[in-house]
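S1.2 Input.
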Amino acid sequence: TARLEAEPLQIDSGMFIFGGLNSSYVPINNSKIFNYSTNSWLSISATNIPTARTQPGLVWTGNKVVLYGGTNASNAVENNGKIYTPSPTDSWTTLPTTSAPQFDSYRTVGVYLNSKAYFFGTALTDAGTSRFVGKYFDLDTNSWSATYTTSTNAPTAFPATSSILSISNSEFLF
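S1.3 Output.
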């Protein structure tokens, strides 16, 4: 299915694609995996799949895809996520919502490092200005924790950022 604003993610067997907009500019919630070896698209389970959205943050853990955030059909930010396990279960699991990030940005970006899925976006302050916000999901403890994004060295708000790169065991490049 042709789509706009879908999120691609490199995984071991190929490329994982989630969501995006259909030809009528309505968010969709199906996923596919393009297998480089067979040059073919594989459908994945629709059971418990995340709601239709564009621009979620995606990270590959080496054996799972963690999805968080994005924008739904009402143009509202989705502050929830799921874990997709390709093999052997082809299944989606809901992330806990306790202490999960509360972004106001339409795009969420993510990176995986040291058994943690880091997600970044922006959130409004009490003064009505946007600030940079980040949290990580620890796959070992199945819980959310805050990152240090309130320091004077943190980036300013970035609603249009489209990528993030882990450049060491403890540093990110936006």
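S1.4 Remarks. Residues 163-174 have pLDDT under 50 and may be disordered.
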